[in-house]
Every structure is written in structure tokens, then in C-alpha cells.
Amino acid sequence: MPLVTPFVSLVVGLAGLGIVVSAGQRGGAFRASRDHPAIAYSTGAVSNVVSDLNDRIQAGETELRFQGRGGYLDSVLRALDVPVESQIAVFSKTSRQASEITSKNPRAIFFGDTVAVGWVRDGDKLELATQDRRQGTVFYTLTQTPADQPQFTRTDRCLACHLSWDTLGVPGLQVLSVAPLSSDPTAYATGFVSDHRSPLTERWGGWYVTGQVGSVAHMGNIEVTDVENPDATLGAVPPQLDSLVGAFDLDGFPSEHSDVAALMVLEHQAGMTNLITRVGWEARRVEFRESSSPGDGGLDLVTDAALQLVDYMLFVDEPPLPTKITGSSGFAEYFSAREPRDSRGRSLRELDLERRLFRYRCSYMIYTDAFDALPVLAKDTVYARLWSVLSGQERDEVYARLSRDDRQAIVEILRDTKTDLPIYFEDVGG
């Protein structure tokens, strides 16, 4: 059976492979140091679901249990409220545990709205990436050895790859699709950063993909290491897998799936995570400037970051799906059923998967703690831009795909579910 190499540059490093990432679709980026006085990423206090869990463990409120080949995995997923249905599997040797990773022993990634957990069967560490409420993406490891009070350890080693132009200049996430690599030791792998704006033909190189994608060419479910043809995944219609049964021994894996719906949600989520961080950091840097040099400028950077974020959160560049997508693990049903809902029972989490990723074209990441914690300058600028588009005041052709009914539904959902929404969000224009 053709193999797949799933690659989440989410909790993994690329430096050891010398991977060259193509530019893809990029906008602006944060250009100051992560340790700018307004940011202090390395030394500032953190506040995120992993640090919260560390505190609960130390206080004796939560206990992690070490069980079988999964080690702390099951216990950590429960403690962080990360669904097993979100499992996606990768066997590219891009982790610091590369020696343990093969096509018969892939890494598994599990994720919730603000945290991703990477597990290698029989590996020595769990790897975690979490969206801090202030500091962007923060990385942790948990040693896979039984202990009375295990603790997550923060690490910045991941920033060698997780702080780049592709993460908008902030510590962030990226989901890559990688092309096959020959056995030539001098060969460099190439890859594309993928998100909801990417065509399916440029997605999932190096990933196991379970579920139904129709007769559409994509880069998943095909071997990407030691291959003769570096173009093997380009334009090919790969085999469709209902599950991972038969691909490798599943002993220790909580799920038998690498769900296509979960992959697509993660691709969107990674981009939103970085955009939220960037607009917050730009605003903090402007506020710092103003405190020491009033009138020094920089507001254009906040405006630019807000424009990028709003366009992304409204899916204005999302190409139509060429076919119906059907997941395999129940992730789509789990995710779509989550709160919050408006008075008519509608939710921004409802997946479409026939014409587009989501039924309502507005990202559920607007509900994250990191969005809520944005500086006033950033949040006011984002909301103003969001209303300009949703109200119909913004007439640029790129927003034409947002029909009046689409815009009205989004506003109604937000009015019922987002407590800090400005009062000027009312009925939209024509």
C-alpha cells in the first residue's frame, strides 16, 4: 500500500532535514524581536492550558497516570480536553524523536482549539504546542517516565522552525505538505505551508489521510522518503483509506484514523493562531512606543495585521471544494456539535465539507482566550474591519462571495454568542 508522511510543523522541527518551504500566500509579518520589551516572549509570564495543568498537578488537583505504550498520552488528552477523534498520523522524520519514527510507527498528533499534543509510540517525550493567552505559541515537553507529579517543561528549541516568515514572524504553527525526497543525502525536501486557502492538489504530502475525498488529486497517502520520483505525489489520485488498519500495527494508538476533516480544521486553525498573535504583538509594540515616544507611529502595522486576520477569518480566499469531503473518525460530528450556539441553534463550528470547510464563513477562533485577551487597540481595529466587511460597506470584489445572507447570519450568531461584540454590529446592508 502506498504510504503517507503527515507533517505538522506544529510540534516538530525541520532544521535537521534542511527543508525548503515555498512562499505560498503571505502577507506582512512581525519584524521586531520576540524579546522586544513589549513582548518578552522568553522571560514574560505565561498563561495557557498547559501551564494551568502544571499548576493543577502541583496542587494535587489533577493526577496524570502512566499507562502502557501510550505512557501519559491518554491522561494528558483527558486533562486538556483534547478529543481522540482529532488524531492525525505522520511518519516523516521531522521530530527530535526522528529515530523512533517510521511508516510503521508514525507520530500521532491530537489537538483542541488551543493545544496540540504529539506522541511517538515508545518515544521518550510528549511534545505540546499551546496558544498562550498573551505570548503566542509556547512549546512544552513531558518526559515519558512514571513520576509522582510529572511536570511539563517549556522549551524554545522548536523556534528554530516555528518562528519564521511562514509563521508571520511570531512563535507559531504551520501545517506543511511535503514533496517526496530521494535517498540522495544531499537532496533537500520541499514543502508548502497549507491552510484553508490552499488547493487540495497542494495538501497533505506526507500525511496519512483517512476518509473520502472523491477522485481528487492530493499529495497524501503516498510515500515521501527514499523515492525514485520526486514528483510522485503531484497530480496523482492517491488511494483512499477508510482507516489505518493494515497500514501498521495500531497497538497503543487511541484511534485507527488520521481524519481528513481534522486535518482541514487544523490547517485553518494554525493560520488563525499566528494571525491572532501577530495583531496582538503589533498593538503591544505600538502601545510601548506611545508610552515612551508619543506620536511615533506604527498604527499602520496594526491595521495591516487586522486586515489580514479578518480576511482569513472570513475565508475570503478559500477556493470551493471540488468534491464532498467525508471524515472517518467522527471528528466532524464532534466538532460541529460543540458550543456556543445562538438563539436559533446555529454555531460557527458547523462544518460544511461539501462546498467549503465551514457552513458559516467566520472562524470559531474568535472565541479563544487569546482573541479575548488582545489589547484594546488590536481588538477595536479587528472589530472595526470585521464590521466594515460584514455590513457591506467594504465593496472590494474579493468580498463578493460573502452574500448578504452569509453576512447577516454571521452577525446574528456573533451578537448572541460574543459578549464583547461592539454595539454597532446590527443588521447588515445589501
Report on the architecture of this protein:
With 430 residues, this protein is α+β, with helices and mostly antiparallel strands. The protein has a domain at 261-417. It is built from nine helices and ten strands. Strands 3-4-5-6-7-8 form a six-stranded antiparallel sheet, covered by helices on one side. It has a four-stranded mixed sheet with strand order 1-9-10-2. α4 (260-292) packs across α8 (376-390). It is globular, with a radius of gyration of 21 Å. The model is unreliable at 1-26 (pLDDT under 50).
Name the descriptors.
430 residues, alpha+beta, six-stranded antiparallel beta sheet, four-stranded mixed beta sheet, 10% strand, globular
Write a compact overview of the structure shown.
Helices cover 25% and strands 10% of the residues.
Shape: globular
Oligomer: single chain
Mean of all residue-level pLDDT scores: 89
Task: Name the poorly predicted regions.
Answer: 1-26
Write the element-wise H/E pattern from the N-terminal end onward: EEHHEEEEEEHEEHHHHHH
**Strands, count:** 10
Proportion of helical residues: 25-40%
The SS-based structural class is alpha+beta
Q: How do the strands and helices of this protein lay out in sequence?
A:
Elements: E1 7-8, E2 20-21, H1 49-58, H2 73-79, E3 88-90, E4 107-111, E5 115-120, E6 125-132, E7 136-143, E8 153-155, H3 159-162, E9 175-178, E10 190-193, H4 260-292, H5 299-313, H6 331-336, H7 369-372, H8 376-390, H9 404-417
Parallel strand pairs: 2-10
Antiparallel strand pairs: 1-9, 3-4, 4-5, 5-6, 6-7, 7-8, 9-10
